[in-house]
Amino acid sequence: MTEIPTMPVPVTIRAIVQETPSIRSFYFDPAIPSSPGQFVMVWVPGVDEVPMALSSGHSITVQKVGDATAALFEMQVGDRLGIRGPLGNGFTVSGKTLAIGGGVGVAPLLNLVSAGKVSTFLLGARTKDELLLAPLIRAACTLRIATDDGTEGRHGFVTDLMDEIDLTDYDHICVCGPEIMMVKVLDRLQKAGIAERGQFSLHRYMKCGIGVCGSCATDPHGLRVCRDGPVFTGDRLFETEFGKYARDASGRRVYFAAPHQGTQKKPETKGH
Questions:
Q1: Could you tell me which of 78, 92, 89 has the C-alpha nearest to residue 12?
Q2: Which DSSP state fits 105?
Q3: Which of 54, 84, 116, 142 is the most buried (most CB within 10 A)?
Q4: Distance (Å, rounded) from C-alpha 163 to C-alpha 88?
């Protein structure tokens, strides 16, 4: 059995890159070896420890959504963080893989791209300025883009791009983004009869990150996002809370009520 990291490793921020107006990548040393889709618990000294996806072995790519990420955005090169991980189960792929990412949800998919394991990437954002790391993705695989306002690529949602390809051509479909978007992806996979080929990276509030506290357990089956996930196949998400609500730090349900895929509100959770 793989040993679960219980203590954070101190890392030093070596570079900070403004990827979009709202998203930054923080590069650190030493690197944290991981499998694509795994996450880490990031300790921001004096503030909190929160789960975040690794965008590479030596980086996290973050959107400011709460106290911990706000404090992280105030940090400078040379400052230190604590990183505990890698944790959880990531993506498992072979053969031909389709990746679908929206907003900062692209970050957990980047290790797949860098490893040369993605054939086609469908990338979505609200506007051209918010497209995350499109040049890096385009250099590694076939890239198709959709923006809510039509400023680049298809005018519409990233799920609209799915209607223009044969989904059954792909052995695996790896997905991360706003949960409303991911539900629409799962709907299309179900209609195509291939829900089990989908692998979805869930975002949930976590306290321990190692499956003890139960704060990230899903309803009604009690799947722990930190240990059983964060990546789940589509067939495991039917008849669960997926696409309906998550829970905040108090355990209260926070319902996803976005007018469209690009503006979903969510609590501060894994990676974003």
A1: 78
A2: G
A3: 54
A4: 32
Contact 86, 211 (CB under 8 A): no
Radius of gyration, alpha carbons of the chain:
17
Determine the pLDDT at residue 5.
65
178: Cβ–Cβ under 8 A, 6 or more apart, which residues? 102, 103, 105, 256, 258, 261, 262, 264, 266
Phi, psi (degrees; rounded to nearest 5) at 98 = -105, 130
Right CATH for 97-263 from 3.30.70.1350, 1.10.443.10, 3.40.50.80, 3.40.50.150: 3.40.50.80
- Residue 159 CA to residue 157 CA, distance in Å, equals 5
Tokens at residue 63, please?
Answer: 């959107």
97-263: same fold as 9-87? no
Residues of the chain with pLDDT under 50: 1, 259-272
Closest CA to 146 of 124, 164, 119: 124
CATH of the structural domain 9-87, one choice from 2.170.150.70, 3.60.20.10, 2.40.30.10, 2.30.40.10: 2.40.30.10
Give the DSSP letter string of 123-173. EEESSGGG--SHHHHHHHSEEEEEETTSSSSEES-HHHHHTTS-GGG-SEE
Nearest to 66 by CA among 88, 31, 85, 42: 42
The strand pair at 59-63 and 23-29 is best described as: antiparallel
Using DSSP, state whether 109 is helix, strand or coil: helix
25-35 burial, b for 16+ CB within 10 Å, e for fewer? bbbbeeebebb
Q: What is the model's pTM?
A: 0.91
CB 25 within 8 A of CB 59: yes
Residues 223 and 240 sit within 8 Å (Cβ to Cβ) = yes
